[in-house]
């Protein structure tokens, strides 16, 4: 793409930026610039630009506001000790957005254009990438929305792809600790033929009421079962799951109605290198409960871009509870190995890291 750049004349001052980066939280502060490119059937992708960060002006009839034709991605940029900035498997995020776009009837943004857009914005706003101390990073949010002014159920004829960035602190501010999960048997996240494997906002909106239920029960996250039989574990509200057996092998629910996480696929490769085979298959809630109770399942963990890897403790449901698994040893080994690659503290033998600037 030919990207036109208009730099902001109202940059966040250095002193204020230092305060923000010292305690960025998550999704609270945003960098000085944003990337935009538009699509129409006649012109294709055009008008690629980096401009000062600011509000969007949308007509009340803009299609995304009424029909939820929208996809997004989540990824991070990491600063190494030498000051360089790297992203983690950006081409995989780009490829997943292509798959999501197909499911949402969007035009496909080429993988190389997606990566170029992210690189360009991160380079312009590189001063916003925190130092690695405390697992800080720059969270990157590419997204695509239907921006045609039109009321009617059909694919939008005007589409806007954007990238914004936000500095992020460690997901676990007081250290990694097991999360408690609530099993919902009333709500499901996606069914066969639905949008569960697409990264679209509607999937997350559908999880919110179940998450409220989990919070009311004193739990950190909610577990969803399959929509057809309410038997098989799918995923959490925004994380994939793994189950470690006493013989060292690992099981993770098969995809199809769940999101194919970039962290998820990386852990499958990483666990294999550490000598642990990973089996992708249907995994029932009874196998979870019985396995933990008998000691056959020694660890349970979840993964996602924000938390990276987190151990899972107790599983609760209406009228019952499974105790926390006996160990977190392998969970923490996998987590540390992955984080060390991301921050450049370990050799990247997989070729996952992408140098930005």
From TrEMBL:
The keyword Transferase applies. Keywords: Amino-acid biosynthesis, Aminotransferase, Branched-chain amino acid biosynthesis, Pyridoxal phosphate, Transferase. GO terms for molecular function: branched-chain-amino-acid transaminase activity. Its cofactor is pyridoxal 5'-phosphate. Its EC number is 2.6.1.42. InterPro entries: Aminotrans_IV, Aminotrans_IV_CS, Aminotransferase-like, B_amino_transII, BCAT-like_C, BCAT-like_N, BCAT_family. Pathway: Amino-acid biosynthesis; L-isoleucine biosynthesis; L-isoleucine from 2-oxobutanoate: step 4/4; Amino-acid biosynthesis; L-valine biosynthesis; L-valine from pyruvate: step 4/4; Amino-acid biosynthesis; L-leucine biosynthesis; L-leucine from 3-methyl-2-oxobutanoate: step 4/4. It catalyses: L-leucine + 2-oxoglutarate = 4-methyl-2-oxopentanoate + L-glutamate; L-valine + 2-oxoglutarate = 3-methyl-2-oxobutanoate + L-glutamate; L-isoleucine + 2-oxoglutarate = (S)-3-methyl-2-oxopentanoate + L-glutamate. Pfam families: Aminotran_4 (PF01063). PANTHER family: BRANCHED-CHAIN-AMINO-ACID AMINOTRANSFERASE, SUBGROUP IIII AMINOTRANSFERASE. Belongs to the class-IV pyridoxal-phosphate-dependent aminotransferase family. This is Branched-chain-amino-acid aminotransferase. It comes from Nocardioides taihuensis. The lineage of its organism: Bacteria, Bacillati, Actinomycetota, Actinomycetes, Propionibacteriales.
């Amino acid at each position: 793409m030919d990207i036109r750049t208009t730099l902001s004349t109202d940059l966040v001052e250095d002193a204020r930026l230092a305060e923000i980066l010292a305690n960025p939280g998550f999704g609270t502060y945003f960098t000085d610039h944003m990337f935009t490119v538009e699509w129409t059937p006649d012109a294709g992708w055009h008008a690629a630009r980096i401009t000062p960060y600011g509000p969007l002006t949308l007509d009340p009839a803009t299609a995304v506001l009424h029909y939820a034709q929208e996809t997004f991605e989540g990824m991070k940029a990491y600063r190494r000790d030498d000051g360089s900035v790297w992203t983690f498997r950006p081409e995989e995020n780009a490829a997943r957005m292509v798959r999501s776009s197909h499911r949402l009837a969007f035009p496909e943004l080429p993988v190389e254009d997606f990566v170029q857009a992210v690189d360009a914005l991160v380079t312009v706003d590189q001063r916003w990438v925190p130092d690695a101390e405390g697992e800080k990073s720059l969270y990157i949010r590419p997204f695509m929305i239907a921006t045609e002014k039109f009321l009617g159920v059909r694919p939008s004829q005007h589409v806007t792809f954007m990238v914004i960035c936000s500095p992020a602190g460690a997901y676990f501010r007081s250290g990694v600790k097991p999360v408690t999960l609530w099993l919902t048997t009333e709500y499901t996240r996606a069914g066969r033929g639905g949008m569960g494997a697409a990264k679209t906002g509607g999937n997350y909106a559908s999880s919110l009421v179940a998450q409220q239920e989990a919070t009311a029960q004193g739990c950190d996250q909610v577990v969803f079962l399959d929509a057809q039989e309410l038997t098989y574990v799918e995923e959490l509200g925004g994380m994939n799951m793994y189950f470690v057996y006493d013989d060292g092998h690992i099981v993770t629910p098969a995809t199809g109605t769940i999101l194919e996480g970039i962290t998820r696929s990386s852990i499958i490769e990483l666990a294999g290198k550490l000598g642990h085979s990973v089996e992708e298959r249907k995994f029932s809630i009874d196998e979870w409960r019985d396995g933990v109770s008998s000691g056959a399942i020694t660890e349970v963990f979840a993964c996602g871009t924000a938390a990276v890897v987190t151990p899972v403790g107790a599983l609760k449901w209406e009228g019952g509870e499974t105790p926390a698994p006996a160990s977190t040893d392998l969970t923490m080994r996998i987590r540390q190995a992955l984080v060390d690659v991301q921050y450049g503290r370990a050799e990247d033998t997989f070729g996952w890291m992408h140098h930005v600037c």
